UniProtKB/TrEMBL annotation:
Pfam families: LON_substr_bdg
TM annotation in the entry: none
InterPro entries named in the record: Lon_prtase_N, Lon_prtase_N_sf, PUA-like_sf
Source organism of the structure: Pontibacter mangrovi
Record protein name field: Peptidase
Ranges for domain Lon N-terminal: 4-182
Length: 211
């Protein structure tokens, strides 16, 4: 089943359930926001990547207009709903300033694997501890999923976009676990390197080996 959505391409990845605050200043997107609010419509944020509008994005609901400025600019609060794939893209929607597109919503499975989830939690604790971000781990909800932590893994935009296209929670969990397994040794070695640099020139209390 397809639907025509107003589109607001951005150089970011937005995940379902994510809360996103936006400052809207371009005339075309001011028009998009006002129409969506007046008509109770949703819009889509496809990821602008590799100098083009990607096929995948997230349908967004406008929660409220937080502030309106004298020049018509706005601060809005939005929330991600579901993932779509663009079937047909219009640089300008018919009779509008903003882009639009015929999209289909993808089937998304939330079939998590509890063992993989436990492994991810352990790796995340080590990651945040190594980075000195223990508060992030403390704020991690018990029922977290791939989307909850998607922006807290140190992924670049391309990697987040790949995650967005994985349509099974188990697939997303495996990809996240693999990423964490790869990045942790690098981070730990970096920390050891920093420690060696800090100690250089200092008086060292070293225990001589027995031989």
């Amino acid at each position: 089943m397809s639907k025509y959505l107003p589109l607001f391409p951005l150089s970011i990845v937005v995940f379902p359930e994510e809360k996103l605050n936006l400052h809207v200043f371009e005339p075309r997107y001011k028009q998009l926001v006002l129409e969506c609010v007046e008509e109770g419509k949703t819009f889509g944020i496809p990821t602008f990547i590799k100098n083009g509008v990607g096929l995948f994005g997230t349908e967004m609901e406008i929660l409220r207009i937080e502030k309106k400025y004298d020049n018509g600019e706005m601060d809005i609060r939005t929330k991600g709903l579901r993932i779509f794939k663009i079937l047909k893209f219009d640089k300008m929607a018919p009779g509008r300033l903003y882009a639009g597109g015929e999209v289909e919503f993808v089937e998304n499975k939330f079939d998590e694997d509890i063992i993989t989830k436990m492994k991810i939690r352990e790796k995340l604790e080590k990651l945040y501890e190594t980075l000195g971000l223990g508060n992030l781990y403390e704020e991690l909800p018990e029922d977290f999923n791939s989307y909850t932590i998607g922006h807290q893994l140190g992924l670049n935009t391309e990697q987040e976009y790949t995650l967005l296209q994985l349509l099974s929670e188990q697939e997303r969990q495996e990809a996240i676990l693999q990423h964490l397994q790869q990045v942790m040794p690098v981070l730990q070695e970096t920390e050891r390197l920093k420690e060696r640099v800090r100690l250089n020139g200092h008086f060292k209390n070293l225990t001589p080996p027995n031989f």
